[in-house]
């Protein structure tokens, strides 16, 4: 299900607030070819969230009907690096288009990724259906880059998936309750939907959309079915609630 809403263009976070502290961007070999990867130091969590076609067509993000266990993240001092640690058969030692666009999209995210220690962001070739998935059990985000995707388009998909990562890392029942109140969502609304279902009509999906909207730019293609994009006041309240 997709619903389009007008997007306010004011009150966004300054690009100067963006940092990639604690993130290493590398190239790893995978079963489907080379994948661009952003890494942070690790531990594990159980859930899988998938994101299909990101723009106009119907989209779904698979979420589990389970309760998440919260944990505080560790800190990291690693710097940002770009390193070819794998090689393709045609261009040894070089990155694929997916990796190049993925690296560019990371720089469009106004969020300190070191706050998600242990998470890995992998940029893979495009596939039918999903545009991205979040797998908390392995602290892994997969972004599927299709031919013709721009860094900005990929950043929108990545912003949503990072929203899920922030949710399962930092949310508590009290925070989720406060978020529902901020966004005017019914207090008894179930946070997650069913597995392999669209999450745009769930509080979890609305949170991910709100996060993506806040950390990218006014062009973010808003898809939540629970309301319009967050107002300046709502963004300020969510920022304070999660210390963003």
Question: What's the arrangement of secondary structure elements?
Answer:
Blueprint: E1 24-30, E2 33-39, E3 49-52, E4 82-84, H1 97-106, E5 120-125, E6 130-135, E7 140-145, H2 151-170, H3 173-183, H4 203-215, H5 232-242
Percentage of residues in DSSP E strands: 15-25%
**Average pLDDT, to the nearest integer?**
72
Rg to the nearest angstrom?
A: 17 Å
Order of helices and strands: EEEEHEEEHHHH
Number of strands: 7
**Which residues form runs of ≥5 with pLDDT under 50?**
1-37, 39-48, 52-89
Account of the 3D structure:
The protein has one domain. The protein has five helices and seven strands. It is α/β, with parallel strands linked by helices. It has a seven-stranded mixed β-sheet with strand order 3-6-7-5-2-1-4, with helices on one face. The N terminus is likely disordered.
Quick recap of the structure?
By secondary structure, this protein is of the alpha/beta class. It is built from 5 helices and 7 strands, in the order ββββαβββαααα.
